[in-house]
From TrEMBL:
The keyword Signal does not apply. The keyword Kinase does not apply. It holds the Pfam family Fic. ATP binds at D175, G176, N177, G178, R179, T180, S181, R182, Y207, Y208. The record marks E42 as: Important for autoinhibition of adenylyltransferase activity. It comes from the Bacteria. This is Fic/DOC family protein. Gene3D superfamilies: Fido-like domain (1.10.3290.10).
Length: 246
């Protein structure tokens, strides 16, 4: 599954560093599309152009404060993830809580970075997240899985996809689990030199179905394949920039 992706990444790596303004424009494009799509998946009604305006510091009439905060918060969370990558810090529970704290800042401060104390259910999913008293233990199991040697031998795409799926299955927070899980997925990819990916809102149904299959049957192949396709898209975008500059 990963052979052609590895070849594309090797080609990208061979052409690094890319020109400064090319990198800047690619970063801005992906930050916008990542922020728009991740929020749209969760029901935010801002269009991609409205999201761009909010990122520029302008208020959009007729939209809620929450919808504006979801954009600003996600941008800040991306910057935090980029800092983790730049500092080469290992993934930790503390970082997960801090990412979530940024996602929910000003939206629900009482639960920002705090594990839920109530049972929740995922609309449209067969999977039921664990009871609140099990969350701490489940997160510890997730971190132990992540750190074990066998997991570290997995391809970064498979490891990132499984990290996302297991985390969102635990659903440790009252709100913001989807956004946080997609940030964790991209954190894992970026640590290993892949460009961030965008789970597109038009693929939402396939995304949810693949996640539910992972949660109920412990079968991750469909979800890994979905993530791999998005990695392929992002690599193609970067490679097109190389060809344009050639």
């Amino acid at each position: 599954m990963f052979e052609h992706i590895n070849q594309k990444k090797q080609l990208l790596d061979a052409n690094r560093p890319l020109p400064k303004y090319t990198v800047k424009s690619l970063h801005e494009k992906l930050l916008l599309e990542w922020t728009y799509n991740t929020n749209a998946i969760e029901g935010n009604s801002l269009t991609i152009n409205e999201t761009k305006v909010v990122l520029e510091g302008i208020t959009v009439g007729g939209k809620t404060l929450r919808e504006h905060l979801e954009v600003i918060n996600h941008r800040d969370a991306i910057h935090f993830v980029e800092e983790i990558v730049q500092k080469d810090e290992p993934l930790s529970e503390w970082q997960i809580k801090n990412i979530h704290r940024l996602v929910l800042k000003g939206i629900d401060d009482a639960y920002a970075g705090v594990y839920r104390d109530q049972q929740v259910f995922i609309a449209g999913a067969k999977h039921i997240p664990p009871a609140p008293f099990l969350i701490k233990e489940e997160i510890e199991h997730l971190m132990a899985w992540y750190e074990q040697a066998e997991t570290q031998k997995l391809h970064p795409i498979a490891r990132g996809a499984m990290l996302h799926a297991i985390f969102v299955g635990i659903h440790p927070f009252i709100d913001g689990n989807g956004r946080t899980s997609r940030l964790l997925l991209n954190l894992e990819l970026m640590i290993y030199g892949f460009p961030p990916i965008v789970i597109k809102v038009e693929n939402r149904l396939a995304y949810y179905e693949a996640l539910d299959k992972a949660h109920t049957k412990r079968e991750y192949d469909d979800f890994i394949k979905l993530v791999a396709d998005e990695v392929d898209d992002s690599l193609n975008l970067y490679l097109s920039a190389i060809n344009s500059n050639a």
